[in-house]
Amino acid sequence: MGVKISLQDNKLTALIEGDIDHHTAKEIRETIDNCVENYVPRQLKLDFSGVQFMDSSGIGLIMGRFKLISSLKGTLKVINIPKNLERMIKLSGLAKLGIFEEEDKRKPCRR
Amino acid sequence: MSLNFLSRSCNESFARTAISAFVAQLDPTIDELADIKTAVSEAVTNCIVHGYKTDIGKIYITSKIYSNGKITIQIKDRGCGIENVERAMEPLFTTGGSERSGLGFAVMQSFMDKIKVTSKVGKGTTVTLQKFIIRRTVKSEI
Lengths: 111, 142
Hints:
The complex is a heterodimer.
Chain A: E1 2-8, E2 11-20, H1 22-39, E3 43-54, H2 57-71, E4 75-79, H3 86-92, E5 100-101
Parallel strand pairs in A: 2-3, 3-4, 4-5
Antiparallel strand pairs in A: 1-2
Helix pairs in contact in A: 1-2
Chain B: E1 2-6, H1 12-23, H2 30-51, E2 58-65, E3 70-77, H3 85-88, H4 104-111, E4 114-120, E5 124-132
Antiparallel strand pairs in B: 1-2, 2-3, 3-5, 4-5
């Protein structure tokens, strides 16, 4: 449960693990935003490979991070969305932002 | 089946886990179970974020299983109520601030077969969700 942050080449990767709901989103958001504000990375990557459940709070989480990193002139990528969450993503219309990537070939480096 | 619990956000996972344990007796697919869990999570979150915005109150869940595979889940709060239900149900409409997507009702509509919302300002809101769990034919034993 929670989020693991790693930083490489001015790219910040947040590996999210467990369930994303209104309750857990708060802690995940605070951890990510703290790091983003401290390091001001060129790119923020949200890695969803460890997400088991997500309601629309996950959409709010992506939207909020998109706004934050955009305001800091950085870009957002969302990677490894599990198959079972695709319907939620489709419903949100977030695909038009062009932030989703099929898969990250490299292993996420953990701290 | 009925249960009630306080509108603390830490109870969101309890609510969807409890409902999935109840639905499990219908032998749903993983996708069907995920749909129900997601819809219940949305409804309960609405009670916490909107119904009991400024206080902590009780959330009541009642669920029934019918012999034809139908399941109904009622999620009720005695919170502030919704002034304009139609508007609240519009996708992307939210009063919850920038971290809320405004998709709660859209998700419930999309992931369940039927949804009914009744609300009275100052009295509370009741969301009734309905879904048919398709009975799969049992493969005959060898």
